[in-house]
Amino acid sequence: MIGMPGCVFCRIIRGEAPAVMLYEDELVAAFLDIAPVAPGHTLVVPKYHAERPEELPAEYLCAMMKAAALLAPAILEATGAEGYNLLVNAGPAAGQVVMHVHMHIIPRRRGDGMRAIHVPGERRIVSHEELRPVGEAIREALTRIKGR
Ligand code: 5GP
Ligand code: ZN
């Protein structure tokens, strides 16, 4: 389950590659990102090789969120950051480079210059008429997926 050949996160979890480990339990490990965007940038990684969140058994999804909620205040306290972003890049189009699911905890400070997905002023509020067809298509897809 954590033995995917060539997967660097599987290797870290198995203790075959080095990492600055912060937290570990039966289901997840959390360690510092090797190329931090801010001090304390952390990765929460399930002990289960899957590429995307939707491929993970639910217990791993829960464990990832629980670990993030446990770690975030500790990261803030230790680094003096004021807030944080939780981020999962799913798929290369979304910026995923390591193809083993992981959640970034990115410590943030006011004025740190990092871009958030929500940039005030850069988006336009659209009408519900414009939103509705997308909502309908997603709800239909959800029904299909749940039926599989
Ligand atoms: P992604 O773009 O896939 O969401 O993010 C992958 C992250 O993993 C990057 O932020 C990158 O710096 C980090 N990373 C890649 N290889 C290693 C490694 O060997 N060790 C650690 N600690 N982080 C890594
Ligand atoms: Zn892996």
Question: Could you characterize what this model shows?
Answer:
The chain is of the alpha+beta class and 148 residues long. It has one domain: HIT-like (HIT family, subunit A). Helices cover 32% and strands 17% of the residues. It is built from 3 helices and 5 strands, in the order αβββαββα. Strands 1-2-3-5-4 form a 5-stranded antiparallel β-sheet, covered by helices on one side. The site of guanosine-5'-monophosphate has 13 residues, from strand 2.
Summarize the structure.
The protein is α+β, with helices and mostly antiparallel strands.
SSE topology sketch:
Elements: H1 8-13, E1 21-24, E2 28-32, E3 42-46, H2 58-79, E4 83-87, E5 103-108, H3 128-146
Antiparallel strand pairs: 1-2, 2-3, 3-5, 4-5
The total number of structural domains is 1
Looking across the biggest beta sheet, what order are the strands in? Answer: 1-2-3-5-4
- Indicate the CATH topology: HIT family, subunit A
Which structural class should the secondary elements be placed in? alpha+beta
CATH class: Alpha Beta
Which ligands are bound?
guanosine-5'-monophosphate, zinc ion
CATH hierarchy: architecture: 2-Layer Sandwich
Task: Report low-confidence residues grouped into runs of 5 or more.
Answer: none
> What is the strand content?
15-25%
What is the count of β-strands?
5
In N-to-C order, the SSE pattern is: HEEEHEEH
Rg for CA atoms: 18 Å
Q: What proportion of the residues is helical, as a percent range? A: 25-40%
Report the total helices: 3
- Report the sheet with the most strands, covering strand number, pairing sense and barrel closure: 5 strands, antiparallel
Shape field: globular
Mean pLDDT: 95
